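ENTRY TYPE: protein
WANTED: fold as C-alpha coordinates:
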Amino acid sequence: MTAARIGALSLLLTSACATTATRTLDYETPVDPALQARIESIDAELRAKYEMPADATDVGVLDLRRPRVAMIHPDKIEYAASVAKIGILLAYFQRHPEAAKDLDPTTRHELGLMIKASSNEMAAKYSRELGLREIQEVLNSYGCYDAAHGGGIWVGKHYGPNSERIGDPVANHSHAATVRQLLRYYLMLEQGKLVSPAASKTMKEIFASPDVPHDDHKFVHGLAGRDVQLLRKWGSWEDWLHDSAIVSGPHRHYALVALTHHPKGDEYLVELAQKVDDLMIATSR
Protein backbone atom coordinates (compact mmCIF):
# COMPACT_ATOMS: atom_id res chain seq x y z
CA MET A 1 0.00 0.00 0.00
CA THR A 2 1.41 3.40 -0.97
CA ALA A 3 2.05 6.21 1.51
CA ALA A 4 -0.70 8.24 -0.17
CA ARG A 5 -3.18 5.38 0.18
CA ILE A 6 -2.25 4.92 3.85
CA GLY A 7 -2.74 8.63 4.43
CA ALA A 8 -6.14 8.58 2.78
CA LEU A 9 -7.17 5.57 4.82
CA SER A 10 -6.04 7.29 8.02
CA LEU A 11 -8.21 10.28 7.14
CA LEU A 12 -11.20 8.01 6.60
CA LEU A 13 -10.62 6.28 9.91
CA THR A 14 -10.49 9.53 11.84
CA SER A 15 -13.23 11.50 10.08
CA ALA A 16 -15.98 8.98 9.29
CA CYS A 17 -17.73 9.36 12.66
CA ALA A 18 -18.85 12.87 11.74
CA THR A 19 -20.79 11.59 8.72
CA THR A 20 -22.87 9.11 10.72
CA ALA A 21 -23.24 10.83 14.10
CA THR A 22 -27.04 11.23 14.09
CA ARG A 23 -28.10 7.92 12.61
CA THR A 24 -29.55 4.79 14.14
CA LEU A 25 -30.55 1.43 12.75
CA ASP A 26 -33.12 -0.49 14.74
CA TYR A 27 -36.14 -2.72 14.13
CA GLU A 28 -38.31 0.31 13.32
CA THR A 29 -35.95 1.88 10.78
CA PRO A 30 -37.71 2.03 7.40
CA VAL A 31 -35.95 1.09 4.20
CA ASP A 32 -35.46 3.70 1.48
CA PRO A 33 -38.01 2.73 -1.20
CA ALA A 34 -35.85 3.63 -4.21
CA LEU A 35 -32.71 1.97 -2.88
CA GLN A 36 -34.70 -1.06 -1.74
CA ALA A 37 -36.17 -1.54 -5.21
CA ARG A 38 -32.73 -1.37 -6.85
CA ILE A 39 -31.15 -3.82 -4.39
CA GLU A 40 -34.01 -6.26 -4.79
CA SER A 41 -33.63 -6.02 -8.57
CA ILE A 42 -29.88 -6.67 -8.40
CA ASP A 43 -30.42 -9.62 -6.07
CA ALA A 44 -33.11 -11.13 -8.30
CA GLU A 45 -30.96 -10.72 -11.42
CA LEU A 46 -27.96 -12.44 -9.83
CA ARG A 47 -30.02 -15.23 -8.27
CA ALA A 48 -31.55 -15.97 -11.65
CA LYS A 49 -28.10 -16.06 -13.24
CA TYR A 50 -26.74 -18.51 -10.66
CA GLU A 51 -30.01 -20.43 -10.15
CA MET A 52 -30.25 -19.53 -6.47
CA PRO A 53 -33.61 -19.66 -4.66
CA ALA A 54 -35.00 -16.60 -2.94
CA ASP A 55 -34.08 -17.87 0.53
CA ALA A 56 -30.40 -18.39 -0.38
CA THR A 57 -29.38 -14.73 -0.05
CA ASP A 58 -29.71 -12.05 2.63
CA VAL A 59 -28.46 -8.58 1.71
CA GLY A 60 -28.09 -5.19 3.35
CA VAL A 61 -26.77 -1.83 2.13
CA LEU A 62 -26.41 1.13 4.49
CA ASP A 63 -25.41 4.46 2.98
CA LEU A 64 -23.04 6.24 5.38
CA ARG A 65 -23.20 9.54 3.49
CA ARG A 66 -26.94 10.07 3.89
CA PRO A 67 -29.65 8.20 5.79
CA ARG A 68 -30.87 5.41 3.56
CA VAL A 69 -30.84 1.65 3.95
CA ALA A 70 -32.05 -1.36 1.98
CA MET A 71 -32.33 -4.89 3.38
CA ILE A 72 -33.44 -8.29 2.12
CA HIS A 73 -34.27 -10.79 4.90
CA PRO A 74 -32.67 -8.50 7.51
CA ASP A 75 -33.54 -10.63 10.53
CA LYS A 76 -33.11 -14.10 9.06
CA ILE A 77 -30.41 -15.77 11.13
CA GLU A 78 -27.68 -17.64 9.30
CA TYR A 79 -24.71 -19.75 10.25
CA ALA A 80 -22.03 -17.02 10.18
CA ALA A 81 -18.77 -18.97 9.82
CA SER A 82 -15.88 -16.54 10.38
CA VAL A 83 -17.99 -13.38 10.14
CA ALA A 84 -18.74 -13.76 13.86
CA LYS A 85 -15.08 -13.11 14.69
CA ILE A 86 -15.97 -9.42 14.78
CA GLY A 87 -17.65 -10.24 18.09
CA ILE A 88 -14.34 -11.43 19.55
CA LEU A 89 -12.71 -8.16 18.49
CA LEU A 90 -15.41 -6.10 20.19
CA ALA A 91 -15.22 -8.16 23.38
CA TYR A 92 -11.44 -7.79 23.52
CA PHE A 93 -11.65 -4.00 23.58
CA GLN A 94 -14.63 -4.02 25.94
CA ARG A 95 -12.63 -6.10 28.43
CA HIS A 96 -9.37 -4.23 27.75
CA PRO A 97 -10.40 -0.58 27.29
CA GLU A 98 -6.81 0.55 27.91
CA ALA A 99 -5.86 -1.14 24.63
CA ALA A 100 -7.66 1.60 22.71
CA LYS A 101 -4.66 3.88 23.20
CA ASP A 102 -1.96 1.43 24.26
CA LEU A 103 -2.16 -1.73 22.14
CA ASP A 104 1.09 -3.64 21.87
CA PRO A 105 2.27 -4.42 18.32
CA THR A 106 2.03 -8.21 18.72
CA THR A 107 -1.61 -8.10 19.82
CA ARG A 108 -2.44 -5.60 17.08
CA HIS A 109 -0.94 -7.92 14.46
CA GLU A 110 -2.65 -11.03 15.85
CA LEU A 111 -6.04 -9.33 15.94
CA GLY A 112 -5.41 -8.16 12.38
CA LEU A 113 -4.73 -11.75 11.35
CA MET A 114 -7.99 -12.80 13.03
CA ILE A 115 -10.07 -10.17 11.23
CA LYS A 116 -8.43 -9.54 7.87
CA ALA A 117 -6.87 -12.97 7.18
CA SER A 118 -9.54 -14.78 9.22
CA SER A 119 -7.01 -16.79 11.24
CA ASN A 120 -8.77 -19.50 13.24
CA GLU A 121 -5.69 -19.89 15.42
CA MET A 122 -5.79 -16.25 16.50
CA ALA A 123 -9.56 -16.29 16.92
CA ALA A 124 -9.35 -19.32 19.21
CA LYS A 125 -6.50 -17.77 21.18
CA TYR A 126 -8.51 -14.66 22.02
CA SER A 127 -11.90 -16.32 22.44
CA ARG A 128 -10.39 -18.77 24.94
CA GLU A 129 -8.75 -15.89 26.78
CA LEU A 130 -12.02 -13.97 26.97
CA GLY A 131 -14.51 -16.84 27.39
CA LEU A 132 -17.53 -17.59 25.20
CA ARG A 133 -20.15 -16.44 27.69
CA GLU A 134 -18.26 -13.24 28.33
CA ILE A 135 -17.98 -12.51 24.60
CA GLN A 136 -21.71 -13.01 24.15
CA GLU A 137 -22.49 -10.84 27.16
CA VAL A 138 -20.64 -8.01 25.45
CA LEU A 139 -22.48 -8.54 22.16
CA ASN A 140 -25.80 -8.67 23.97
CA SER A 141 -25.01 -5.44 25.82
CA TYR A 142 -24.83 -3.66 22.46
CA GLY A 143 -28.08 -5.24 21.26
CA CYS A 144 -26.23 -7.30 18.66
CA TYR A 145 -28.29 -10.40 19.49
CA ASP A 146 -32.02 -10.31 20.20
CA ALA A 147 -33.83 -13.65 20.22
CA ALA A 148 -37.19 -11.87 20.05
CA HIS A 149 -36.23 -10.35 16.69
CA GLY A 150 -34.58 -13.24 14.89
CA GLY A 151 -31.21 -13.34 16.66
CA GLY A 152 -28.05 -11.58 15.50
CA ILE A 153 -24.32 -11.91 16.06
CA TRP A 154 -23.45 -15.00 18.12
CA VAL A 155 -20.11 -16.47 19.18
CA GLY A 156 -20.82 -19.84 20.77
CA LYS A 157 -17.76 -21.88 19.86
CA HIS A 158 -14.01 -21.40 19.69
CA TYR A 159 -12.54 -21.59 16.19
CA GLY A 160 -10.61 -24.76 16.92
CA PRO A 161 -10.95 -28.49 17.67
CA ASN A 162 -12.41 -29.97 20.84
CA SER A 163 -14.23 -26.79 21.67
CA GLU A 164 -17.05 -26.14 24.05
CA ARG A 165 -20.24 -25.17 22.25
CA ILE A 166 -23.15 -22.92 23.17
CA GLY A 167 -25.82 -22.84 20.46
CA ASP A 168 -27.72 -19.63 19.81
CA PRO A 169 -31.29 -19.58 21.20
CA VAL A 170 -32.99 -19.02 17.83
CA ALA A 171 -31.31 -21.52 15.50
CA ASN A 172 -28.76 -23.38 17.64
CA HIS A 173 -25.88 -22.13 15.48
CA SER A 174 -22.41 -22.15 17.00
CA HIS A 175 -21.69 -18.90 15.13
CA ALA A 176 -24.51 -16.75 13.79
CA ALA A 177 -25.35 -13.41 12.23
CA THR A 178 -28.16 -11.42 10.67
CA VAL A 179 -27.90 -8.66 8.09
CA ARG A 180 -29.43 -6.02 10.36
CA GLN A 181 -27.08 -6.69 13.25
CA LEU A 182 -23.99 -6.71 11.03
CA LEU A 183 -25.03 -3.37 9.58
CA ARG A 184 -25.62 -2.04 13.11
CA TYR A 185 -22.16 -3.21 14.18
CA TYR A 186 -20.52 -1.36 11.28
CA LEU A 187 -22.65 1.73 11.87
CA MET A 188 -21.67 1.87 15.55
CA LEU A 189 -18.05 1.29 14.58
CA GLU A 190 -18.23 4.28 12.21
CA GLN A 191 -19.93 6.39 14.88
CA GLY A 192 -17.31 5.59 17.51
CA LYS A 193 -19.92 3.88 19.68
CA LEU A 194 -18.21 0.51 20.13
CA VAL A 195 -16.58 0.79 23.58
CA SER A 196 -15.35 4.37 22.98
CA PRO A 197 -14.35 6.65 20.11
CA ALA A 198 -10.70 5.73 20.71
CA ALA A 199 -11.46 1.99 20.79
CA SER A 200 -13.60 2.20 17.65
CA LYS A 201 -10.77 4.00 15.86
CA THR A 202 -8.27 1.32 16.89
CA MET A 203 -10.68 -1.43 15.87
CA LYS A 204 -10.98 0.17 12.43
CA GLU A 205 -7.20 0.24 12.18
CA ILE A 206 -7.20 -3.50 12.92
CA PHE A 207 -9.77 -4.09 10.18
CA ALA A 208 -7.48 -2.14 7.83
CA SER A 209 -4.19 -3.82 8.96
CA PRO A 210 -1.98 -2.70 6.03
CA ASP A 211 0.57 -5.40 6.96
CA VAL A 212 -1.99 -8.17 6.29
CA PRO A 213 -3.08 -8.67 2.66
CA HIS A 214 -6.72 -9.06 1.71
CA ASP A 215 -7.87 -12.50 0.58
CA ASP A 216 -8.69 -11.98 -3.09
CA HIS A 217 -12.21 -13.33 -3.30
CA LYS A 218 -15.82 -12.27 -2.75
CA PHE A 219 -16.09 -8.46 -2.32
CA VAL A 220 -12.34 -7.89 -2.68
CA HIS A 221 -12.26 -9.65 -6.05
CA GLY A 222 -15.38 -7.85 -7.19
CA LEU A 223 -14.01 -4.40 -6.30
CA ALA A 224 -10.46 -5.01 -7.54
CA GLY A 225 -9.09 -2.09 -9.54
CA ARG A 226 -11.59 0.39 -8.12
CA ASP A 227 -10.48 3.33 -5.98
CA VAL A 228 -11.91 2.00 -2.72
CA GLN A 229 -10.78 0.97 0.74
CA LEU A 230 -12.47 -1.95 2.51
CA LEU A 231 -12.82 -2.67 6.21
CA ARG A 232 -14.04 -6.22 5.84
CA LYS A 233 -14.91 -9.54 7.46
CA TRP A 234 -15.73 -12.52 5.30
CA GLY A 235 -16.73 -16.07 6.18
CA SER A 236 -16.86 -19.45 4.44
CA TRP A 237 -17.94 -22.89 5.56
CA GLU A 238 -19.26 -25.47 3.11
CA ASP A 239 -22.04 -23.62 1.24
CA TRP A 240 -22.32 -20.76 3.74
CA LEU A 241 -20.41 -18.08 1.84
CA HIS A 242 -20.54 -14.54 3.21
CA ASP A 243 -18.92 -11.14 3.07
CA SER A 244 -19.40 -7.86 4.90
CA ALA A 245 -17.57 -4.57 4.62
CA ILE A 246 -17.44 -0.82 4.96
CA VAL A 247 -16.59 0.48 1.49
CA SER A 248 -15.06 3.94 1.16
CA GLY A 249 -14.07 5.78 -2.00
CA PRO A 250 -14.82 8.83 -4.15
CA HIS A 251 -18.55 9.59 -4.15
CA ARG A 252 -19.47 6.65 -1.90
CA HIS A 253 -19.18 5.46 1.67
CA TYR A 254 -21.42 2.57 2.64
CA ALA A 255 -21.71 -0.74 4.47
CA LEU A 256 -22.51 -3.84 2.42
CA VAL A 257 -23.48 -7.19 3.94
CA ALA A 258 -24.42 -10.36 2.08
CA LEU A 259 -24.99 -13.81 3.59
CA THR A 260 -25.45 -16.68 1.16
CA HIS A 261 -26.16 -20.38 1.52
CA HIS A 262 -25.48 -21.82 -1.92
CA PRO A 263 -22.55 -23.37 -3.84
CA LYS A 264 -22.50 -20.33 -6.16
CA GLY A 265 -22.39 -17.88 -3.27
CA ASP A 266 -18.88 -16.60 -3.97
CA GLU A 267 -19.70 -15.81 -7.60
CA TYR A 268 -22.84 -14.01 -6.46
CA LEU A 269 -20.82 -11.96 -3.94
CA VAL A 270 -18.29 -10.86 -6.58
CA GLU A 271 -20.98 -9.50 -8.89
CA LEU A 272 -23.10 -8.10 -6.06
CA ALA A 273 -20.18 -5.95 -4.90
CA GLN A 274 -19.65 -4.60 -8.41
CA LYS A 275 -23.29 -3.80 -9.04
CA VAL A 276 -23.89 -2.25 -5.63
CA ASP A 277 -20.76 -0.11 -5.96
CA ASP A 278 -21.92 1.11 -9.38
CA LEU A 279 -25.32 1.90 -7.88
CA MET A 280 -23.91 3.81 -4.90
CA ILE A 281 -21.77 5.96 -7.21
CA ALA A 282 -24.67 6.64 -9.56
CA THR A 283 -27.04 7.64 -6.74
CA SER A 284 -24.56 9.52 -4.55
CA ARG A 285 -25.95 12.97 -5.37
